[in-house]
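FAQ
Q: What does a multi-component entry look like?
A: The components come first, one per line:
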Amino acid sequence: QLLLQESGPGLMKPSETLSLTCSVSGDSISSGTYNWAWIRQSPGKGLEWIATIYYSGNTYYNPSVETRVTISVDTSKNQFSLALNSVTAADTALYYCARHSTAGGARNGYYHLNWFDSWGPGTLVTVSS
Amino acid sequence: DIQMTQSPSSLSASVGDRVTITCRTSQSISRYLNWYQQKPGKAPKLLIYAASSLLSGVPSRFSGSGSDTDFTLTISSLQPEDFATYFCQQSFSTVITFGQGTRLENK
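Then the predicted structure of the entire assembly, as tokens:
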């Protein structure tokens, strides 16, 4: 059974860099053709997809944060991570990591048939001065 | 970005009721639409992918339909464990977006 667990700082100050890690157990992060994603949820914005890293190494980012965010995988630790710099109060949210599965063929490198089928429990990040 | 509009925003129903939730997209997304269920304090859980494919292990009382811009999630006979918030999500665009959610409450 695949289990994901987020870890993060909890409380941050504006302008700092948020670093989140998702520890994966129950399967190797580098096995198969799975992809990995970060999603956040806040009362004001609802569910917002942030980033995905494909097994191929390709990355996709939400334009709303694209200039501030990096997603990466550490296969030696069976983890993947998110770095979000220059945080503001607007980045306050519950952050989830998820497995991002795909099916069918890709068009221009993107698999239109995709979904988030395993999620971590989430980690709350609050940005406040 | 593709805008997702769910209706209603909230819904009161009773055990045994048939419930339908609608998701409308701002442009055609073919059938690249997924549905999730979220209970308080928990992460969303995938129910249906590709508009109508039921994830293995999800009860058959859940069903999805639709294409292009109009989609529905139907619960044929509401069970006590189904009171939750439901979200749609499109995967057509490289910028993935979610609906705002429909809160299903016990009448």
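Q: Is there any commentary attached?
A: Sometimes. For this entry: The two ends of chain A are 40 Å apart (CA to CA).
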